[in-house]
Amino acid sequence: MNRNSSVKARIAISLLPKLNSCIYLPLIERCGGLEGFFLESDQALNQLYRELNIPTDTFNRKTAIQNSEAEIEQLDKHEIQICTIEDGCYPELLRQCADAPLVFFYKGKLKSSPANKYLAIVGTRHASSRCEARVTALVEDLVNLGCRPVLVSGLAYGIDASAHRASLKFGLTTLAVLGHGLHMIYPATHKSMARQILETGGAWISEFPCTANIHPSNFLRRNRIIAGLCHATLVAESAIKGGAMATARLAMSYDREVMAFPGRPEDKYSAGCNFLIKENIAALTENATDVAHLLGYPIKKTTLQQTILPNFSDDEQGNTLIQLLSENGALHIDELCQLTQRPSSELAAILLQLELEGKIIGLAGKKYSLR
Questions:
Q1: Which residues form the DprA winged helix domain (predicted)?
Q2: pLDDT reported for residue 95
């Protein structure tokens, strides 16, 4: 990496965490760009601070430029690339967020095609095996529907890891947004998975330089990038408090779709999902078709196959109805009429007989299912 002033300026921005936000984009633009901020005189910069209501001496430019040398060495050593708000490869959805980072680091490939759909799958580190399996099945079903979104998560234990593993298993590109510099992987047990993400065309992303200290708050800060990169965020499993809940609220603030798997009321790590649904923050999501519709994929609605009954006896018609309920699950009497081309008055008597014989169950709303 060439140690020119432009590169140093880009890296120095990342070493000033308070400045590394599009909130300060008006200041950067008034200076003529990222490099211009570091070239501006103290007098001119203080004047801009006053005009933009920014406290003076907020940013130590000199120290940041000096420290950029050490960071450049780390970027060279670990083959880490840098992307700024001024670059064409900066993700467009993230660019739209008011608090997006001015600068971030990455390894791998940044997908920026407008045709790509981006889906974040997030949740608790204490994921249940039931919900991990649910995430895997969802990703498989999306692929079977012909939907191939880029999946984004945080490479943490639990739901994050399940989302990345499923992406790798079913051939989807996946991005891992990390809460630390890209010279390392945390947790270390996910190093192999992280390498596979790069090998299959994905990327690691972080706004944190290698030389910065790791703080627990970093993992909350990175959630805005996860939400900002995506058209939609799915909370698979979460308690009332946690990073996934913060990511959902951030996605909502960016006017993006939010989805959640419903869970059992007594489950601690379903309480967050149920709350998001109850408060109309998230759409209740049960399957891949729900996700595909919210992402805007053109999914064809399946139609029931019609079965025309000849003039058979009641017993034969009863067997046919049982077969239809076995193949399709619970059906409304109108659907049974459509499938069999028989009037409801005729079917009602047969359905009642089957119910009395204990072969089917009458449900609310004139629906029937097998017992």
A1: 313-366
A2: 94
pTM value?
0.78
Cα angle value 72/78/82 (rounded, 5°): 55
Buried (b) or exposed (e) across 318-352, using 16+ Cβ within 10 A? Answer: bebbeebbeeeeebebebbbebbebeeeebeebbe
Classified as helix, coil or strand, 191 is helix
Please give the sequence-ordered ranges of beta strands (E in DSSP) within 73-131, or none if there are none: 81-84, 103-108, 118-123
Domain boundaries, the chain: 5-108, 118-295, 314-370
Condensed to tens digits (0 to 9), the pLDDT of residues 215-255 reads 888 988 999 999 999 999 999 999 999 999 999 999 999 99
Instruction: Map tokens 């008597």 to a residue.
Output: 349
Residue-wise pLDDT for 7-45, tens only, equals 999 999 999 988 889 989 999 999 999 999 999 999 999
| CATH code of the region 314-370 | 1.10.10.10
| Bridging pattern class, strands 232-237 and 118-123 | parallel
3-state SS, residue 360: strand
SS3 for 150?
strand
Query: Which CATH class for the 118-295 domain?
Result: alpha beta
Q: How many CA atoms lie within 13 A of 185 on its CB side?
A: 20
pLDDT of residue 362: 83
Please tell me the predicted confidence (pLDDT) of residue 2: 41
Contacts of 303 (CB under 8 A, 6+ apart): none
Distance between CA 147 and CA 122 in Å, rounded?
A: 19
Strand pairing class (150-153; 174-177): parallel
Cα gap 261→274, rounded to integer Å? 8
E strand or H helix that includes residue 307? none
